[in-house]
Write a structure and sequence with these properties.
EC 4.2.1.96; Gyrase A, domain 2
C-alpha cells in the first residue's frame, strides 16, 4: 500500500482505481467520513485517479493530529 507523504504542509496520497465508478464510490465514502470528523480534504479526481491533500486550516494550513487521524481512517476504508 502506498503511504501518505508529508509535502508542502499537507499529507498527500494518490489513489488509483479500475474505473471512474470505483473512484467515485471511494470519494463518497471519504466524503461521509470527512463530514463525520468535520475535517474536509482538498482533492482532485480524473477518471480513475483521486489525489487527496490533508491540512488543518485552523492551524495555519499545517499537518496536525486531525489530518493524521483522517488519513488513517481513509486507509481503513480503502
Amino acid at each position: 500500500m502506498i503511504m501518505w507523504r508529508e509535502t508542502e504542509n499537507s499529507l498527500y496520497k494518490r489513489f488509483e482505481f479500475n474505473d471512474f465508478s470505483e473512484a467515485f464510490a471511494f470519494m463518497t465514502r471519504v466524503a461521509l467520513l470527512a463530514e463525520k470528523q468535520n475535517h474536509h480534504p482538498k482533492w482532485t479526481n480524473s477518471w480513475n485517479t483521486l489525489e487527496i491533500w490533508l491540512s488543518t486550516h485552523d492551524a495555519g494550513d499545517k499537518v496536525t493530529e486531525r489530518d493524521r487521524k483522517l488519513a488513517t481512517a481513509i486507509d481503513q476504508i480503502m
